[in-house]
Amino acid sequence: MAKNQTFTLNRRDFLRIAGLGAGATAVATVTKSAAAAPAATFAAGKFSDPAGRPQRPWWVKSVDEPTTEIDWNMMQRYNERTGTVRGPGMAGYVGDDEVDRLTEAAAKNELERMLNNVDGYTLKDQAMYSSHVGVGRTFLGPQKAKTPEERGVPKWSGSPEEAAKILRSALRHFGAATAGFIELDDNTRKLIYGVDPDGKDMIFTDDPIASEDDNARYLPNSCKYVVVYTVQMSSETMRRCPTPLGAQTTSLAYKRGEAIQASLQEFLRGLGYQGLGESSTNALGIAPAFGVMAGLGEMSRLNRLITPEFGPMVRVFKLLTDLPVATDKPIDAGIMEFCKRCKKCAEACPSESLSFDDEPTWETRGGWNNPGHKAYFENSVTCYTYWREQAGTNCGICFSVCPFAKKDKAWVHDWVKAGASTAPFMDSFFRSMDDAFGYGTQASAEEWWDLDLPEYGIDSNQSVREA
Predict the structure, then answer these.
(1) Interhelix angle for 411-422 vs 335-342, to 10°?
(2) Which helix (H) or strand (E) holds 211?
(3) Helix, strand, or coil here: 220?
(4) Each residue of 52-90: pLDDT tens digit?
(5) What is the arithmetic mean of pLDDT over 348-355?
(6) Total domains, the chain
(7) Which residues touch 172 (CB under 8 Å, ≥6 apart)?
(8) DSSP reduced 3-state for 66
(9) What is the side-by-side strand order in the sheet with 179-183?
């Protein structure tokens, strides 16, 4: 049930806002002058950081611990085969008969909506939803690139900073939006699944080379570096959720993620190193958690990663390698603090699956949640039931209504993000303004076909900042 929020402003807070407003006016003046100049074209610069880390806004701070509290002693490696509501796991929570009923309901709705030309569910929308055929994922990679040994040369060598820089360069070229790195230790190893989605055990071993058989995948202890990267989704397209047309931008991101993984695995092989990837969608480990540890974003009321650059409009992927890389730290950009006061996603959730609690909690809501960290835990059963029974898709409404999901096309959006990070007392005000300007509303799917959007519907320069 949606809960109304009332924002009141005392004299002190008003003066503080006015102070920021004065700064914003100055920014607006500069922005207006810049807008009168000819549009700038993209020009490649050079990394200012030895490890290729991008220059982020001043209000994104590196911190030693994530903004979500973690108790590593409580955390256990997760069984992705039976714990999740995806795939066969759902039957463990609601039973086979209910899964069959939901499947039949989804098929019935899909047919009736196509026959009745329901906006967003027409034949052309469904055709778009089913068009994203991926290249396929493998744990060990295609293994077609020549190794240094096959070329008759030593494997690549360089400092961890140089390694991180060339991997970032490669990932951006392959189509990733952002990338970060962490080194596995006794704690973060727990973010690697104990059992993969296909039921294979994930076993760490002292063997120097990774392998797999019918029952298990064997991860060398030397492959202790995690490459975490994001792929952008189209915010304009996600505004058409939960229709198949809106939801297919998720499928497109996963397909792009597949291609990036295969390319990265072959690139590492060509350098003389291993790249152990996801064997299927959402395999290998807990992607949002790795994104947090690698500093790509913070956890949120969605119980998903929200990034400073793209909000929740990303999919997160991960890969293990034995190439030593310079690692990254978590960040604090005020995102989790903002989520405590906003609650817009919970209000918009049609299945009422998101938490309205004021503070994150240690208490999980079901076996689909992994204990050991504070979070706004969701009800995945009611969420997935809505996916199948009503939407017929992976929904995505909570992503699209998030105030952080807006593209930074105007100076005020960056100003608001900075304010959310540095002046949390203004969070409710920013949320109210988000509503007042009509942001986070769903749009007509039929109108989407008339939009002249860029490649993939995204702005690929959004994460590139001038040094």
Answers:
(1) 90
(2) strand 211-212
(3) strand
(4) 999 898 889 999 999 999 999 999 999 999 999 988 899
(5) 96
(6) 1
(7) 179
(8) coil
(9) 179-183, 225-232, 314-321, 275-276
How does DSSP classify residue 136? -
Is residue 22 in a domain?
Answer: no
Q: What percentage of the chain reaches a pLDDT higher than 90?
A: 75
What are the angstrom distances between the C-alpha of 312 and each of 15, 82, 127, 405? 32, 26, 26, 6
Q: How many helices (H) and strands (E) in the chain?
A: 16, 9
| Helical (H) or strand (E) element with 315 | strand 314-321
**Three-class DSSP category at 414:** helix
The strand pairing partners of 320, in sequence order, are 226, 276
In a domain, 290, yes or no: yes
Residue written as token pair 């005000």 = 429
The answer to whether position 465 is within a domain reads no
Nearest to 319 by CA among 369, 370, 252, 263: 263
Rounded Cα gap, residues 89 and 342, in angstroms: 32
Residue with tokens 């020009």: 43
Is residue 95 situated within a structural domain?
yes
Contact 175, 60 (CB under 8 A): no
Given a contact cutoff of 8 angstroms between Cβ atoms, the answer to whether 357 and 205 are in contact is: no
Question: What is the Cα–Cα distance from 124 to 69, expressed in whole angstroms?
Answer: 45
**DSSP assignments along 328-358, one per residue:** ---EE-SHHHHHHHH-HHHHH-TT--S---S
Which tokens in the block code for residue 172? Answer: 């951006």
Report the mean per-residue pLDDT for the chain: 87
Among residues 329, 44, 320, 327, which one has the least CA distance to residue 161? 327
Residues 6+ apart with CB under 8 A from 264: 167, 170, 171, 174, 227, 275, 277, 319
Tens digit of each residue's pLDDT (9 = 90 or more) over 427-441 = 666 676 666 666 667
Q: Is 463 left (phi over 0), alpha (psi -120 to 50) or beta?
A: alpha
pLDDT of 276 above 90: yes
Reported residue count of the chain is: 467
The residue range of the domain holding 339 is 51-457
d(CA 152, CA 170): 23
Of 36, 46, 23, the residue nearest 414 (C-alpha): 23
